[in-house]
Amino acid sequence: MTAGIWSFAESEAPAQRLAQALGFPHHCVALHRFPDGESLVSVAVGNHETAILYRSLDDPNIKIVELLLAASALRDNGAQRVVLVAPYLAYMRQDAAFHPGEAVSQRVIGQLLASHFDALVTVDPHLHRTGRLEDVVPGIPAIALSAAPALIAMLRHDLPADTVLVGPDGESRQWVSQVADGLGLDFLVGQKRRRGDHAVEIELPGIEKVAGRPALLIDDLISSGGTLRSCAALLRGAGAIRVEAAASHCLASASDLASLAEHGVARVRTADTVPGPTACAFVAPLIAAALRASELLQR
Length: 299
Ligand code: R5P
Known about the structure:
With 299 residues, the protein is α/β, with parallel strands linked by helices. Helix content is 31%, strand content 28%. It contains nine helices and 15 strands. The site of ribose-5-phosphate has 13 residues, from strand 12 and helix 7.
């Protein structure tokens, strides 16, 4: 079996890390955007039976279309199997119609990807009501990895031993407890009520334990940063001497990150599932190990 990895320019560094971990060649997908907004995608003609296409789906609306074009070009040029590695998978939060008339985005995007790819690998997909990633992409093998081992490896050497890990809500418990176990640290988990895209109300039962201690917020996703800002205010008010944050994915803009700093979050570090200034915990070794252990690279 011959295999190669293709990535778009913005994912070149993490895709090369994956190619190196697997010992596969890496190729760039060439992309041209026309003045009218259409995209022209082309792939180097490689003689690979299995093509691994690497792209995270932050800013998903344009990226998904270009991914489908790249998958088609790879098949036209000889790939018999096209595996999508999308370390951040978009549209997973809208897994139901929460108000009458809403589209169930998770189902639509999942079915679309399943009809164009032979397998999917992702990291910490936001699955809360849908139990398994296989149910999102019906009929193809799907692997959902956790970024927690990469976060633990990154945090292991520089957190004071009295740090309290803090999860904003019940959904974050799985990451907070895993990182706390891995580092032998104390943790607490809050409750969150979302009032709008940028408005959340947080309660942190047990917050009194952070007085005079550093706190590290842990979540799967930083989007606007509103959740972390609210938590940081509570932690500062309760006497935390320093507040930092770590997450699997960071979609926050430069101004959202600046606002977090202004609101007392001294440092934000995330896995490199989405390229950006906070991405410093590498998931390539985890993805490589999962691909090697799977049947996806077998003939
Ligand atoms: C929500 O369920 C997620 O786990 C994150 O807490 C949320 O997406 C963060 O969004 P924001 O940064 O906009 O508050």
